[in-house]
Design a protein that fits this description.
Distance between the termini: 18 Å
Helix content: 25-40%
Oligomer: single chain
Length: 80
């Protein structure tokens, strides 16, 4: 089984959470448009001024997602 990689977009400022929530909508649209089998997305509030949106992909999709959507960072997804 290939690795799962969590692609992360950071948003900062007073509207960070709303922006992350909205960004997740576009990540879900991308999954459908690109016919990606793995469908794990989400958003998290890290603090009052920092939130993230994320999408989990396998190794085979990582390069395309990185080049097309330009995440700020990535980490190995552990499912937690």
């Amino acid at each position: 089984m290939s690795r799962q990689i969590k692609m992360i977009w950071d948003f900062r400022g007073p509207a960070a959470l709303k922006t992350a929530q909205h960004h997740e909508i576009h990540l879900k649209e991308y999954i459908v448009a690109e016919n990606i089998a793995l469908n794990i997305t989400g958003f998290q509030e890290k603090s009052e001024m920092h939130a993230i949106a994320y999408m989990v992909v396998t190794d085979e999709h990582m390069i395309a997602v990185r080049d097309n959507l330009k995440p700020h960072r990535a980490e190995i997804y552990t499912g937690a």
